[in-house]
Design goal:
Layout lengths: L3 E3 L11 E2 L7 E2 H20 L6 H21 L7 H12 L4 E2 L11 E3 L2 E4 L2 E8 L2 E2 L5 H17 L4 E9 L2 H9 L6 H9 L1 H7 L2 E10 L9 H12 L7 H16 L8 E2 L2 H12 L27 E4 L2 H4 L6 H17 L3 H20 L11 E4 L8 E10 L5 E3 L16 E10 L2 H21 L6 H20 L6 E12 L2 H19 L2 E2 L6 H5 L8 H4 L6 E4 H5 L5 E2 L8 E6 L7 E4 L1 H6 L5 E5 L6 H14 L3 E6 L3 H5 L8 E5 L9 H4 L2 H16 L6 H9 L2 H7 L4 H10 L12 H20 L6 H4 L13 E5 L8 H5 L1 H5 L3 H22 L6 E5 L3 H4 L2 H13 L5 E7 L2 H4 L10 E4 L5 H10 L48 E5 L5 E6 L5 H6 L10
Parallel strand pairs: 8-20, 23-28, 23-29, 24-26, 24-27, 25-26, 27-28
Antiparallel strand pairs: 1-15, 2-3, 4-12, 5-6, 6-7, 7-10, 7-11, 9-10, 9-16, 12-13, 13-14, 14-17, 14-18, 16-17, 17-19, 21-22, 21-31, 29-30, 30-31
Amino acid sequence: MAVESAQVFKGVHDTPTYTDLLFNKSLRIGVAVPLALGGTATIALPLLFLDSGHAQTLFFVPLFLTLISAGIGAMIPYGKPSFGFRVRSIWRAIRPKNESSRDSMILAPPEDVIGHLEFTKHGVYANYLVSGLRYYLQPTKHRLGAAERHRNMAREVPAGTWIYSMSVPQSQRQLLRAMLHGHRDKPEWIATCQGLRGQLAQKNPRTRLYWLRFPVDAGREGHTPLGQATKFKDWLAGRDKDSDESLAAYRSLAHDIVTSLPEDFSPVPVTEDMVDWFWRRTAWRGTFTNPLPRRRQGTARQAPRNFPVAEFDDGDQLHNSGRKLPMLPAAGVMAALTVLTAVFVIVAPAILFGLIAAGLIALWCAGVRRVPSWKKVLRVSNPAGLYPDSYQAILPVTDMPKAGIRFPGSEFLDALDDLNTGAEFDFAISLVGHHREAEFVRNDRAKENLDDQFKQRRDARDGDRELRDTGLQLAEYNRQLHSNTDERPMETAFVIAVGAKDPATLDRSVKRLKEQLASSGQVSVRHHRGAQAKLWAAFNSGVPTHKSSVDQFSYRTTATKWSRFVPITSSQVGNTNGTLLGFNTSNALNSAVLIDLPGTARRNHNPCLVCSGAPGYGKSYASKRIARGEYQRGAQLFIVDPGIEWAKAFADVPTDRKAVIDMAGNNFGCDPLRIFPEPVAGGYWLDYMIPMMGLDSRSVAVQRLRTILTARARRQLQIPSTAALMAYIASIQAPIDRPDTRPGQVIRLAEDLYPILVALQSWSTYDFTRAIFDDTLPIPDLANLDMTIWLTESLDLPDAEEMSTPHLYNDLSDRKKASVAIYGMLVRLARTTFFANKSRFGLIVLEEAGGLLNSRAGAADAHLISRRARKHYTGLLIITQDPVADLTLMGDRFITQQLIVPFENEELAKEVARKAGLRAADYDDLEEYFIADPDPEDMREPTDFDEDEDEATERPNRGSRIGTAFFIDEFRRPAPIVVAHEPDARVHAAYDTTPGQEAA
């Protein structure tokens, strides 16, 4: 596959002009012209006025002015930003002037807002929210698809379109509403959600919002000459911008544009409240922290918006203004010196002093009265003190590699979300499309200029290399345009805004931003002194790029090359409702991650989750949080616990709502003939008991037994339990104390079933099979219990090798054979119980599921659940330390959701990542998410103690990896997360599995 790259063609139309007409030496026009004119004047004036007595003055003054002019010409930078922009910025820094949104057209808020339409002094704009595309940790093919969708969008939007992106807080109130959605009648769940308020406030989850704005009053082309002609025609016709006819035309055009965009962006029109929020959020960036308003019901027209006044102090003169300058006294001194030197006919000094005096007076008249702050900061305030002052920096992107940035890896704007400095980072992208044929003509002129400059400039200032590089860029630009008739020439600008609560935070954030961009893609941004207020207008609605000076940082590109920057992406994982699983750590936004297993079934996905990883890193903790959340939301739980940790974790659940069944105890029974529904009980008994007792399923004894265990036969023979079955078989055996009067048919049946009786009597003597053979033990009412915990610590499951190797399987101990049977029965019992009730969600939890999943019956049942759980409103939660080995027999092709905590085995970690669909070829550093880092505290020098010897109270830990995990949601979106902790301290401690320690 060809190497892709994101690229802007900077300077292809801005080649500096050199000439060799002066002394046959290559000089820039800005140098050659002053030298030619000034040199001529320097020689001619003394000769013309040789007898005037001022020949010396007329020689040195023009010479001085010529040298000054040529020096300035040599220092004038070519290309963008222009010399005029730089001069105006320096002037505004020298003579700062506070501006207000009431007085400045480029800083003013919209004049009116009707629905998603903004009416500004510069035109009418439509506003939409768009969704970020799946991109993070996706295969290269999928990332290329995301870039292609950006390309299609760039080809469809009109010229003058803006894309804004803001880092905004997730509404914590809305998060709680999302967790409570559909379960407001569950007091326990409401209390849990309320308890999470503190954790949400501490994490302060954020998300990235994308806002699309484009003009709708200039036709489909937008801000092009044709679009301007459309606006002029409407003006001549006297069309009222907010008339019903105009509004209908604007909405129709907006609808036509957004429906031509790829559906993946999911454009949604904003509301008037959102436009109001956008203005406040942009003006007081860093201090206005309200989340995006919700979409309110109803479409009634509200009163005209009253936007708050914003005052812009470029350079923060309020806090940094210097002392007052003595301009007039200094001008008086210079004027006196001018008079004095003129009296003594010292012409040159007199002229110099006069010019200085005039300059000082001119500066004073222009308003230069104090030493300016010279700070690169924009302070935005409200005269009424509505919001705290915001300190902002507006940084346009000024440079990136000429050859482009290799794709994937060119998404430099993603670096903004990796910064955690206390500031807010936003960006704006300007898109201005150009006519193809006009662009070809301009490229031809640029090529002619390059050819001419090769002759005029030669190799002055490394001219050959510079011109050759520009020529290659121009050729590539032309090639891109010729490659496809749909290719669109464009001009784009990237502007990054940083907002903070104080100047120190802003300064630190800007430094970190520059470092991050330089390392992520060799991208450079510049912090222009004196231009901050004008550049801020890039984020204001409807301000033309030439008025906000953004055009000084706009560069040519094509829709394809621009699309490889992939600015509209999302790393969001999880569901819109559900239990708070944790917080997304793929960047510094810490967005909340919800998981909704019942909703997964309703969305026609399988509600199955595999939690895997090394012991001690929190997979059981996260599983218990998920299980408790589903229990509190009304689900039934069926938990197979190889120890007692789940019983401890749910000890607070009332006993009338749960049953804790110890398979070695005497409180409940699990006889297949009693626990399964009557129509299938006999068949299930044979499935588990025959392999357990080591009998041949093809033997005559088993075949005769199969006829007895049919539902009809059991009712006739009154065999409701395994104990009754033993009694029946024993009753038909030959009597010992009396003559044998049995019919021949019964005798043959008794003889055939005798091996079954012997096996049953033998197996009934074990303590670990009492739950099967003791029919006096009660059977739990699974249908009416909220939670059933089966403690299987007394059982001993074989490993995968023992189950798959015939001779090892034949040599299994009776305890292991019974364990396989009982485990299998439990899973099937859960399946039959939950599958029978489609009105209530049921969750099956298998802790340390390796042994069960390595048995054929258990693996088959688990596989069936993974395929059919969606239809029966049942979920499956598997907890395992080795998902590769443990899921082999079962098969995990239909399980999408995974929660992976760190592994301590590198090969296993790589294999898990591969099976999860994450290719190391796409991400070289992928293993860092899956491999555990040892804690330096555990590896220090043995004699290096700085604490008392009592370390029994210290929790053994695994460094910073405890609580971290890698989550893959039902839509196969991956992201690293940190698992949320239980808000109740007692429950949090009950989840801990480390002996003698508190949960961390």
